[in-house]
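On clarity, I found the account of how folds are encoded harder to follow than it need be. For illustration, here is how one protein appears when written out as sequence plus C-alpha cells:

:::
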Amino acid sequence: MKILVTGGLGFIGSHTVVALLEKDYDVHIIDNLSNSSLSVLEGIAKITQKAPSFYNFDLRNEEKVDAFFKEHDDIDGVIHFAASKAVGESVENPLLYYENNINALVYLLKNITKLNHKNLIFSSSCTVYGEANQLPITEEAPIKKAESPYGNTKQIGEEIISDTCRAYDKFKAISLRYFNPIGGHSSTLIGELPIGTPQNLIPYMTQTAIGQRDELSIFGDDYPTADGTCIRDYIHVMDLAEAHVVALERLFGSEKDGLYEVFNLGTGKGSSVKEVVDAFEKVTQQKLNYKIVGRRQGDVVAAYADTEKAKDVLGWQTKLTLEDALQAAWNWQIKLKEED
C-alpha cells in the first residue's frame, strides 16, 4: 500500500517511516528540509535496506501539492507531520505558525478528498488540552483556549479535519495527541536533529552534556509541583512510531464512513524536568550544567496522559522507558559528535 508521509525526515516522521518500511509499505516522503536534513534519508535506507521516494518542496505551495497528487492519485493513506512545533517560537511569530500549520493542512485535505482512499493520520498534540482540570488527561478532557499559537493551530487543525470527515464521503481520520516524544532509533542512524538552537528539553540537554552548549536553562522552579518544575509525559519515539502504523491499519480496517477519532499517545506517567535531569545524569554518568531561569510563556504546569483508550481500542501501549529514551538520545548525540 502506498503511504504519503509529510515531514517524513523530521524527528517523529523519520522513525515512523522506518516503522512503515519494516511493515513493507510503499512510502513517499514530502519534506522541505526546514527542520531536517537529507542525511536522515540515508539513515532510513541503512536501517531498512529500502529507499523511500523523496520530494523536496513546501506544502504551503498549493500548486506543487496539487501537482504531486495528480501524479500520485493512488495513495492509500497520508500521515501528516509537516508543521512548525515550538511553543516559544509560536508566541514570538504566530503568523508563521498559522500559515505553515493551517494553510498546508487545507491544501493537503483538498487533495485527499479527491483520492479513492481517503485515510489521514494527523500529528496532533496534548497542547490542545491547555492546563487540564484533571490528571491524567483523558480524550474526553475539555479543549481549552490554547496557551500558545502552536497549540491553537493543533486545535484548529483537528476541527478542520473533523469537519472534512463529516462533509466528504468515505473520508476517515485519526488525530494522535502526543505528549513529549524523545529518544531515537537504537541503531543511532536517525534521531532528533533540530536545526539551530533546540526548542525541546532533551536535545538541549544532550548538547549541553556533550559540551556543545554552556548550560541548560530550566524554565521556572516555582510551579505547584513536588520540586517546582513542570511535569510532562515523555514517550520514546519508537513507541510513538509504532502507534502511527497501528492507527493507520485501524483506518484501513474500518468500513465506517466519516470516521474521526482521537487518541492520546503517552506513557501515562508524568516526570518533572528535574526528575528528567536526574535520570539523564544517572543513565549517562554525565553531570549536567543547568540553571533556573524565569518561566516560559505558553508552558502549562503539568500534562500526562490517560492511555486507556489507546490500549483498549488500538491495542497499543508503550514498551520502552524514560531511561531507554534518554540513553538512546545520548547515544545519538555521541554519534553526531563523532561525525563532526
Observations:
- The radius of gyration is 19 Å.
- The chain has a mean pLDDT of 96.
